[in-house]
Amino acid sequence: MTTATDYEAAALKAGRELEEASAQEILRWAADTFGRRFCVTSSMEDAVVAHLASTVLPGVDVVFLDTGYHFPETIGTRDAVAATMPVNVITLTPKLTVAEQDAAYGPQLHDRDPDLCCSLRKVEPLNRGLGGYDAWATGLRRDESPSRANTPVVAWDAKRRKVKLAPIARWTQADVDAYVQANGVLLNPLLWEGYTSVGCSPLSCTAKPGEGEAGRAGRWAGSGKTECGIHL
Ligand code: SF4
Predict the structure, then answer these.
(1) Rg (CA), the chain
(2) In this structure, which residue's CA is closest to atom 6 in ligand 1?
(3) How far apart are the first and last CA of the chain?
(4) Could you tell me the pLDDT band of residue 211, with boundaries at 50, 70 and 90?
(5) Ligand 1: residue whose CA is nearest its atom 4
(6) What is the pLDDT of residues 138-147, one digit of tens each?
(7) Distance (Å, rounded) from C-alpha 96 to C-alpha 131?
(8) Distance from Cα 117 to the centre of ligand 1, integer Å
(9) Closest by alpha carbon to 168, among 1, 42, 7, 71?
(10) Catalytic machinery residues
C-alpha cells in the first residue's frame, strides 16, 4: 500500500527530476503514478491545463470552485469546457450560499474580510473536494507574481497531504498564448475585455489592471492581499 510518506518522497524526487520536463511529461508522470486519483483544478480563466491533462489522461477530472460570485462569462467557460472537451468537470460549492453567508457574517464580506470570504468559499470547498485524490494540478506560473516565482513543478502539499503539480510553472504568458493559438483552447471572454486575471466578480476581488500593470495586479487591488489562500 502506498502511504502519504511514499508520495511525499515521490513528489520531492519528481520535483527535481521533472524541473526541465515539458508540461505533458509532468502530467504523464502524474497520470502514470496516480491514475484517476489525480485531478486538475481550474479557475476557468482558460482551459490550458485542462487541455494539456486531457491529452495524457482523457476524461480527467477538472475541479472548479463555484464561489457563487463568479462572472457569467466564467460559468459559461466552465460549461463550454464540459461540453466540448474530453474531461469530467466537477463543480464544488461552499457550505453556505451567498445569502446564507450574508445572514451569518453580514453582506459583502469580500469587501470587509476577503481572507475569511476566500476561506469559506474557496479553501474549505477545495480541501473537502480534494479528499478523494492523491494529487492535483494547478495552472500556477512563476511569472504571474512574486509570490509564485518559486513554484515547483511538482511538490508535496503538506497541508493537504497530497502531491501538487504546476505543469506550466515554467511557462511565460507568451507560451500560454502560443499553446492556446496552436490548440484552439477555450479562453474566458473577459480576457478580451482588458482583464488579465479573472477571479470573483466583486470589484474588490477582480478589476482590470491599471496602465502599465499586468498579470494579477487587478486581484484584490490595493488591499495587500495577493492570494486566495489555496496556494499558501
Ligand atoms: S475572491 Fe472575493 S468573492 Fe471570491 S471568495 Fe475571495 S473574497 Fe470572496
Answers:
(1) 17
(2) 118
(3) 29
(4) confident
(5) 200
(6) 999 999 888 8
(7) 19
(8) 5
(9) 42
(10) 228
